[in-house]
Every structure is written in C-alpha cells, then in structure tokens.
Amino acid sequence: MKRSSFILIVCFFIISCNSSKRLNLPDRNSAAMSGDQFYKSVFSESRVERETHAKNEILSGNVPQFLRKMVKIKTSVTVDNGKKINAYYFVIPDYLSTGSDKNFARIPLTPMTAQRIADSLHCFLPTRKIVNDIYKKAKVKLEPVPMYAFRDSAVTMYQHNLIIEGQRKLRKGLIAGIKKDVVITEKLSRDSKPDRVAIYSWQKLDGKPIQPLYTGHVNWYVDYSHGIRLVYRTIYVNKKPVDYIDILKDKNLRRLLCDEEYCDCYRYDTTDAATISAK
C-alpha cells in the first residue's frame, strides 16, 4: 500500500471515530421483550426488582437500535485570555429505554442504577448545562404532560410513555422536553441531607423548565417523570479527546460542560448509594 493511501485511511478512521459514537451493547435478541412486555412484566414487582430487571434488560442488549447511535452536541467557551475553545460531545437521542425500534419503553431509574449502566457503557450522567444544550439542539420538542396519581408506580410510568409516543407521532431525531433529567451537580455534595438524587428540566415549549435544579428527593426515589440521558465520557476539545472529569476539574474548560460555580460532582456512588465528589 502506498504511503499516501495509508495516511488517507488513517485520517478517515480518525474522522469517523470523532464524528459518530455508538453504545457498546450486545446485539438485541430477536426474542427479547418489547417495551410493552417489559412494563407488563414488572407491574407486580417491587421497586428493587423492577430496577434489577431493567438494568439486566438494558445491559443484555434489549435496547432499540435508534438509541444506540449517539448525537453530536457542539459547544464552546471563551477563556480568560480571550481565546475561544470549541468542543463537542455525544448523547443518546432519547431517554434510556428497553425494547425494539417499533415497540420500546422509556424506563425511569434511580441514579445508582443509571450510574452502573453509564459506567458499563463509557458514559456519564448530564449536568444542567448539558441538558440545556441538548434542548437547544433537539429536533423534536414536546410539551410536558404531568401526572398526579401513583407517580412512582410502573403502571404510571408505562402510561406516561404511551402519552409521549402519542405526542411524538413517529417523528425521529433528538428529543427533549418529555422528562426530568437525572443529573450530576455540586448541590449533591453540599446538600445538608445525604444520599440525594438531583433532577432538572422538563422544558415547556418556550424553553423554560418546569423543574429547577432540585435535590429534595432521597436517591432511591424515582417516578414516572424521571429520565436517564447518557453522555459519552470522552469529550472532544479542539478535536482532541479528553475525559469529562478532566474537563470538569479545569477552571477554564469546565464551562464547556457545567454552568455551576464548582462543578465538582462527577458521578453517583453505586457502592453505598451516596454521592461522590472531588475532594
């Protein structure tokens, strides 16, 4: 092979890797449960059983194909010397779901289960800024639909998913405005009460969120309105790969991903259900 051809192939490979990302999941078994079947199978299960069931389905590959191809989100920041830094990162186009492309269901999860899944897939949970960036980029923006009875039941979660699908009307593309995001935030390490879950967003069509950044719920609480959006943990800063934690530790680069003062909470602890932050 000529040197010039080899260089072209290498360049194409690098560009391809940086321009698209896919969730590293097993192939979906054709006999796997649909979204409807999943919810019907957990109606009588406990919260803990439902969480375990959902995690196992997702990590075994029972995830729709469309959700595996991540979407690029561009961002930038101007640092102290006036230099503009450009970056981009990748997110899943919808909230974490199980089932097939034709019959899938969004699954609300506790932050501990969401973190375990994120860790397995080289991902992290979004910040408030990332959620806002996603909303601006979203192709499909839907009006939130609050529900009030049996908010933490699987039946209500299933009903809410059906309502969203009725609104979506088979439209495709990055979607937003349909759930409150489970997020990472410095508030988690500074809240007077331990073991919290942080939620944010559920934007109305004018872009204003129903849910401000909030840590009022204990971390095992999850209801129909919660959604899990995964973000690929490698961020491309001026086209160079950087881990998201290294970015959040940098006083200049952190503004690419975070709009809070400290930005020093990186993940939920899956060991003891507490939140880990930098010390």
Verbal overview:
This protein has 279 residues and is α+β, with helices and mostly antiparallel strands. It has 9 helices and 16 strands. A 4-stranded antiparallel beta sheet has the order 1-2-13-14. Helix 2 runs antiparallel to helix 7 and helix 3 (47-59) runs parallel beside helix 5 (111-120). The longest helix is centred in the N-terminal third of the chain and has 17 residues, at 3-19.
Quick tags:
279 residues; alpha+beta; four-stranded antiparallel β-sheet; four-stranded mixed β-sheet; 9 helices; 16 strands
Output the radius of gyration: 19 Å
| Overall mean confidence score, pLDDT | 92
Low-pLDDT windows of residues = 5-16, 272-279
SSE pattern, N- to C-terminal: HHHHEEEEHEHEHEEHEEEEEEHEE
Domain module count:
1
Approximate helicity band: 25-40%
Topology:
Elements lengths: L2 H17 L15 H8 L4 H13 L5 H4 L2 E8 L5 E8 L5 E3 L4 E3 L4 H10 L2 E2 L3 H10 L2 E2 L12 H15 L6 E2 L3 E4 L3 H4 L5 E8 L5 E10 L7 E2 L3 E2 L1 E4 L2 E4 H6 L15 E4 L6 E3 L2
Parallel strand pairs: 6-7, 8-11
Antiparallel strand pairs: 1-2, 2-13, 3-4, 5-12, 8-9, 9-10, 13-14, 15-16
